[in-house]
Amino acid sequence: MATFGIEAIRYFSNARAAGVSSAGDLTYTFNRSNGLDGKLRGAGHTQSFYWTNTDCFETDIRDSDQGGDDRNWVDNVDLFWIETHGNHEADGRARLLYDTPQTQWRTRSNQWQLGENWNAEWLLVYGCKTVDLNNVGGIWNIFAGLHIFCGAWDNMWDGITTDECGEDVGDNLVDGDTVSESWIDGVSDWSVDNHPITVCVGNAATWNGGNIRWDLSYLNRDHLWGHGNVDPDLPPAQQACLLWRWAEG
Amino acid sequence: MKQDKLAEDLCRGVDHPDEVEIHAVRAFAVDENESRLRRLLSVTGEACECTYDRSDWTRKEGRTLVRLPNGGRAELFHASGALRVVTGLEPMAALFASVDKAENLTRLVDKAALRLHLQEWVSPPGRLEFERLWQIKAAAADRKRVVGPILCRAVGAYRQSIGRLPVLGGASVAVKIAAEGRLDSISMQLVETHSEPVETARLIGAEAATHAVARLLDSLLGADQRSRSDLNVKVQPLQLGYLHPGKRKPLRTLAPHYFASVEIEKEEEEAQAYHLIVPATERIYQPLCFAGREAPIAAQRRAA
Predict the structure, then answer these.
(1) Which of A134, A160, A185, B209 has an alpha carbon 20 to 30 Å from B240's alpha carbon atom?
(2) Are A157 and A175 in contact (CB under 8 A)?
(3) Could you tell me which residues are beta bridge partners of residue A79?
């Protein structure tokens, strides 16, 4: 079975007061994150941590080699879910906002390196625009054994009709859907304009000279531990390509 | 963005009736809803040219979960009666040969909807109409070039209306198809009302609703952001509709609400997107928790 960690930030009053961001508070953060938590624990998976609001630190995802503490948090669990405000930089790096400067207010994905010698397989971010659809390669560096990044290429909405997304993703994962499908289906209600995307790395056989073997990709093969196949980690030396799948409407 | 500009944008082109009907929603027992799920499995099986005679039914945590052959499954959500059938196709199997035009894909999902006899699931005063086409695409790249996109799935979203108003929330019906119209999944969150409305209620005006939306937005952005003058606030005109609160919540009454979509962007900052809903009647017919849940009680984290 899997271990998982959750970080969820609903209030951004400290970031606003410090003049760091004008980001508003969210409303249904904990409907979603509590929902995922309940579904995974209900299926026998182990919650390693669940930090909320100002207890969420940017150092938790920052690589230990870069002054962070990911080996004890994000890179120490199989699946990590975070909900906060997000965006991407002009060079394609993902960016997330925190409500406490521990030690910075924001994290940028050039400081993430997940799955190295540690655990992380799946990173799920419920936040806006973490992937630049025109420059997905901007987050390639985060895959140091990590299988799939589940994020958004445009907005992800906070509203009463998206408050069940955490439960939907959780149900999909434990019902045996692939991780990619669990995310894209789970956060989509095919009405509110959510824009999910899943990104993974592939080896030379998957790239296949540009004639992609989609059937071999993590997008097609990876399930949550205990609910289907999980492909082996793919260290950077064996990574030949990035593959991504998204919903648009 | 100034308050009056927000109100102006929210009200642009909005022409709503003075009063609308309030409907009582028919509640089904779990057994009755499981019969509805059997009916959906039967039409899905016919549409897929497969049989779902062999299946494993379990009830747990507010759902009935049905395991089907070939990795498929079906679900019933007890609170709302929402249904879903997933045929078990691998997500990257049965890919479209090319990214087709939207109108061709819409025709294809409409054909699938016809095979599933969707219209038979809605009785007067309800009706069901195509709302929006979604597409699931994929692409890949090595360090030098990008390959794709390819089209994996097309999703037809259909919207139920009762009388003059749509039932807003997640798609009332979503039909997901693979290449050649092969069915991937169908989900339904339809409501069935009693034939006669409970009563007719007078609507609060759209202008009053915009003030309620502005108050909600102000509370999210903090009092110091009241002027919002340095933010790029983008809103869609208010939508009026009945509110379907989701699969996992019971729905006893259909009452009108105003729906506002607010997007906020500021250079060098995070993007924000809020879907704000306010009741459209003075009397509250459909009590809902608009406050959101709070964090679970957890051990306080170590000091910095």
Answers:
(1) A185
(2) no
(3) A4, A122
Q: How many CB atoms lie within 10 A of CB B228?
A: 19
Tell me if the pTM is above 0.90: yes
Instruction: Point out the residue among A10, A27, A248 whose CB comes nearest to the CB of B135.
Output: A248
Please report residues of A whose CB lies closer than 8 A to that of B274: 24, 27, 157-159
Subunit contact A16:B155, Cβ cutoff 8 A = no
B71 touches chain A (CB under 8 A): yes
Q: Which residues of chain B have pLDDT under 50?
A: 225, 304
Structure tokens at B190: 């339809």
**How many whole angstroms separate alpha carbon A188 and alpha carbon A198?**
13
B69 CB neighbours in chain A (<8 A) are none
Question: With a CB-CB cutoff of 8 Å, which residues 20-59 of chain B face chain A?
Answer: none
This model of the complex carries an ipTM of 0.97
Contacts of B266 in chain A (CB under 8 A): 22
Measured in degrees and rounded to the nearest 5, phi and psi for residue A218 equal -55, -35
**Rounded to the nearest 10 degrees, what angle do helices B102-115 and B30-48 cross at?**
120
CA distance linking residue A165 with residue A185, whole number of Å: 9
SS3 of residue A35 by DSSP = helix
| Cβ-contact B128, B172 below 8 angstroms | yes
Token representation of residue A179: 């991780």
> Would an 8 Å CB–CB cutoff place B86 in contact with chain A?
yes
* SS3 letters across B131-188: EEEEEEEEEEECCCCEEEEEEEEEEEEEEEEECCEEEECCCCEEEEECHHHCEEEEEE
Give the mean model confidence (pLDDT) for residues A86-113.
Answer: 96
List CB contacts (< 8 A) between A179 and chain B.
none
CB contact under 8 A, A52 and B157: no
Residues 6 or more apart in contact with residue B275 via CB below 8 angstroms? A157, A158, A159, A160, A161, A162, A192, B259, B260, B261, B262
| Residue contact A190–B266, C-beta within 8 A | no
Distance from C-alpha of A119 to C-alpha of A71, rounded to nearest angstrom? 8
Residues 6+ apart with CB under 8 A from A87: A95, A128, A129, A130, B269, B270, B271
CB of A187 within 8 A of CB of A33? no
- Cα separation, B173 vs B176, in Å, equals 10
Chain B nearest-CA distance from A132, in A, is 13
CB of B267 within 8 Å of a chain A CB? The answer is: no
**Cα distance from B125 to chain A (closest Cα, Å)?**
22
Specify the DSSP class assigned to residue B250.
-
CB contact under 8 A, B139 and A243: yes
- Which amino acid is present at A123? L
